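Session log. Operator J.P. requested a structure for one protein chain; no other inputs attached. Running the standard single-chain path with token output.
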Amino acid sequence: MSAPSFPTPLINDSQPEGQDVLVPGHNQGFVQSAPTGLTTPAPIGPPSQSQGSNQPDQEDMKDESWELSKIIESERQGWIVSAQAAAVVAALLCGVEASLLTLIKTDPSNSVAPPPRAAFRFLLGVSYTALVFNASSTIASLVMLDCLGEIPMLVAKAAPKAAANIEKKIKELQGVDSMDDYLGHFRVGLRWKWARRYCIGSLFVGSSCIFVQVVTYTWIREAISVAAFISVVCMIGFVPLVILFLPERKREQIGREDV
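Structure written below.
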């Protein structure tokens, strides 16, 4: 006898992998079959604008007309350092003047010769003058720092078109030769000029008075040889102070000659 034959089941190979298979269920719903092949990996990288947040682009928010140019910012930072240094130096000179004033008023019994009354009064007058000018120089340097700190706010308050025109002049080096000219566009130039010149002048007078005090004191209280030697030393030490406080044109000429 031959073995009984059974019907071969039909297999549908046309169904692609990973496609939804419709299977009737209790509620006539559908069940999605899991893909049998390799799944496509998710893209790696920063999210696109369609996927990302709704934050505006920072480049669009950036307005160059409200920013200081590199030339002005560099000049501003340099003056800030100079004003801070002037305030510190003037405060130190006030302490030196107080010490010299205390020394001058001590008992002159150990001096070589009794000091003349006129010279003693002159020395006291120079001491008080130096003390006042050094203190006022400290205050003027604080006014300078206040003016320099207002520059970003002044640019922000100015109209964008006006600020852009000023920055354009600076970049082209036309009409703006110094910080005085720049602050003049914002109506702060007068206060800046007064503070800067007063600070430099007061510091020069206060520093000069120290040399005068030392020379006068040595001629009053010390021997002639000591006084002559100290006078020469003070003259040599006074040279850097003169060069530092020369007018800008003179300093430019000296710099060109050195080059």
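Operator note: Confidence is low (pLDDT under 50) at residues 18-23, 25-34, 45-65.
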